[in-house]
Amino acid sequence: MNVAEMLQKTFQDSATNLQAVQKEYSKTLADRQTLDSQLNENKQVKEELDLAPDGAKVFKLIGPALVNQDLGEAKGNVEKRISYIAGELKRKDEQLAALDKKQDESREKMQEVQNQMQKLQQAPN
After folding, report:
1. Rounded average pLDDT over 91-102
2. Exposed (0-12), middle (13-18) or buried (19+): which is 113, by Cβ within 10 Å?
């Protein structure tokens, strides 16, 4: 295997790696957007529960049935959900930052290999 073939294989491996990272990035971004919309929904629910007077009847949908739920318990559940979703959003943001770095590294590697291939082609035989 000559140098040009080795460089071509390295370039192809880097391109495949970049595609895999980009696919993972897209999935993580979609997951993050879902979490973001869930967080907004839960914040709206919390605002509505905060407006409810003490002793107000709150119902929770469990399957096809509405079940009476204590107002304090409902508020606590929503706050826990908000906290959990916020933690997941932070984790997704960290994943996205790491994937951004991986994408940049793959692009740099491809650029480096491409430059080496150009130098090889320009070199007198």
Report:
1. 96
2. buried
